[in-house]
Amino acid sequence: MFPRLKGKLLLIFMKKSLMALGSLFLLGGTATAQKVEFQEYKLDNGLHVILHQDKSAPVVITSVMYHVGAKDENPERTGFAHFFEHLLFEGTKNIGRGEWMKMVSSNGGTNNANTSDDRTYYYEVFPSNNLELGLWMESERLMHPVINQIGVDTQNEVVKEEKRLRVDNQPYGNLLAQVKKNIFKKHPYRWATIGSMEHLDAATLKEFQDFNAKYYIPNNAVLVVAGDFEFANATKWIQQYFGPIKKGADIKRETFVEDPITETIKATYQDPNIQIPMMVASYRTPSMKTRDARVLDVISTYLSDGKSSKLYKKIVDDKKMALQIGAFSFSQEDYGTYILYGLPMGANTTEGLLKEIDEEIVKIQTELISEKDFQKLQNKYENQFVSSVSNVEGIAENLASYYLLYGDVNLINTEADIYRSITREEIRDVAKKYLNPNQRLILDYVPSKDKAQN
Description:
Layout: H1 3-6, H2 10-20, E1 39-42, E2 48-53, E3 59-66, H3 80-87, H4 100-106, E4 110-115, E5 120-127, H5 131-143, H6 149-168, H7 175-183, H8 197-202, H9 205-215, E6 221-227, H10 231-242, E7 265-271, E8 278-286, H11 291-304, H12 310-318, E9 322-331, E10 335-344, H13 350-366, H14 371-388, H15 392-406, H16 411-421, H17 424-434, E11 440-447, H18 449-453
Parallel strand pairs: 2-6, 7-11
Antiparallel strand pairs: 1-2, 3-5, 3-6, 4-5, 8-10, 8-11, 9-10
Helix pairs in contact: 5-10, 11-17, 12-13, 13-17
Signal peptide: 1-33
GO molecular function: metal ion binding; metallopeptidase activity
């Protein structure tokens, strides 16, 4: 829905969504969000700058989002974007190896980074008197990164352990990767964000250095400063630390157009970490920048948000056919995937769950949802919007995403209006347009044969 929810590492998102997808909307009633004020300008080297002042708490966020994600990788070198999320904490010309985290924590701050198929995001949260430090550190990451063999070797082991923990040994941890692999044929979304360990092992140091030189440039990034600061100080330090960085070569991006899905795609994946098969049906959907993608968000909320949702009430509560049921629209910059999933209970089957889900989809396609349900959706989205701008950290990431991925920073204030304007007729028509059996992937996500025999 809102960029902050879209932007997190896909593997983390999947883990959370499978366990508690309905917990995204916990607020009751409706509320009114304050308009987010911001200033934006561009440095001579192409770095876009967004400033949002909020003096309600003595903290400041310095963050940089780069327009590079897994989709920008060489198909034979997948995992580079996520790898750099780790590698660029190794150190810089003026920050010794292993000193980054120590420098942040010793000055009362925290920091983190995350990667998606579309972008990579780094940020620090400091007491407001450390704005200059935060800006200097991010400029160091951009201007003077140290990319050497010891750093690459160290982070290679870190990434392998992360993959083992979050994917290989995580029940249903390969779900999203398998959906992407089978639903995209041409687009780089077809591989997992974390990438291939074999590709990372095979990569040379020069390949890592070249990737950095191509994508980690000021004209491929947006800097956001949000929180308690003075504009005069911020603009002075931004020019002082980021201004001298040289503009990089313009990035030529290839466009990948997928052929429409006209008949059901069938695939199977065996997961050694599970005992219960999962019903998975997925549809390829349009860019998150489109109105239709937002309508699909609303449909997924209607179907599976919380225990009062249509699918949960029918399949889990009333018929007791499933342990878990869910749907979510995972929208991205170029395309999206709309995923329905369920875990059958007892003697029930994945085919039985899909039949029940299809019945609810047909209802949405042929009947208008009730006024009561429609108002409930409106309230949830109003609360979601308020929550998305309720803290300065979330505002910073949203400002960066709206600029870099949507091309309109002010969507932080106006996207809620788009959701408010969605009609019941649109919900019906978009469901008709995208959610048909011949337009989807059916993934048979099952226990491995060895596991089934144990």
